């Protein structure tokens, strides 16, 4: 549902990337610091433009989408969790609903925000000041904001919906990290396209349907986790010796030595 063809971007160092990010699947973009993951996510989200090549969303050039139509169908969670003004958690999540202004009832907006906060285990934070909650709590609240942005209850309208997330579990404790990865997998099963930059390769192995390994602005490998994350290519990308432990049908476990 998002297609990138031969995209290049000098700032960010991306070289000739072609990629299909389908609906109803979870795609993990992995790779070392500076590989180009955030740059690629930005381009796939239509937040920046490639110097050459094309990005399409739902079969149409992403730059041709009307901003509000695009905002109701795809949401982007950046790495930075800063908000420059004081705001209550519930109000921040309701900002995610601004593309629906005048289109759905205030009740529906509130219900979407509540559902998103409950899904990310952040409902209890709704009346707190965003600036005074912890880093991991902020990450869950921001995730709720982007889920609320594309939330349409019982939506079977076939319209593409996509979540693009830049390291959405970076600040989370192990319990919340797993809960968020399970949530993202469930959203993908429900038909939403999920694409996320990830440093935890074991989470990528366990939860992603498709893995894309970036290195120095190029795709080094891609495919299902077992195919895309083989020991040699990981060792070469990360500059540390990788071992991939496989046991039956379970997701491979990756250890660096
Ligand atoms: N605005 C910019 N101006 C100049 N160089 C940039 C800019 N943004 C990114 N870069 C460079 O482009 C490369 C890719 O950056 P990017 O943020 O996409 O990497 P990343 O894979 O997301 O890294 P990390 O894992 O550290 O988040 C890096 O070398 C970075 O220094």
Automatic annotation (TrEMBL):
<dbReference type="InterPro" id="IPR027417">
    <property type="entry name" value="P-loop_NTPase"/>
</dbReference>
<keyword id="KW-0547">Nucleotide-binding</keyword>
<dbReference type="InterPro" id="IPR003593">
    <property type="entry name" value="AAA+_ATPase"/>
</dbReference>
<keyword id="KW-0067">ATP-binding</keyword>
<feature type="domain" description="ABC transporter">
    <location>
        <begin position="2"/>
        <end position="241"/>
    </location>
</feature>
<dbReference type="InterPro" id="IPR003439">
    <property type="entry name" value="ABC_transporter-like_ATP-bd"/>
</dbReference>
<keyword id="KW-1278">Translocase</keyword>
<keyword id="KW-0813">Transport</keyword>
<protein>
    <submittedName>
        <fullName>Heme ABC transporter ATP-binding protein</fullName>
    </submittedName>
</protein>
<dbReference type="InterPro" id="IPR017871">
    <property type="entry name" value="ABC_transporter-like_CS"/>
</dbReference>
<dbReference type="Pfam" id="PF00005">
    <property type="entry name" value="ABC_tran"/>
</dbReference>
<comment type="function">
    <text>Part of the ABC transporter complex HmuTUV involved in hemin import. Responsible for energy coupling to the transport system.</text>
</comment>
<dbReference type="GO" id="GO:0005524">
    <property type="term" value="F:ATP binding"/>
</dbReference>
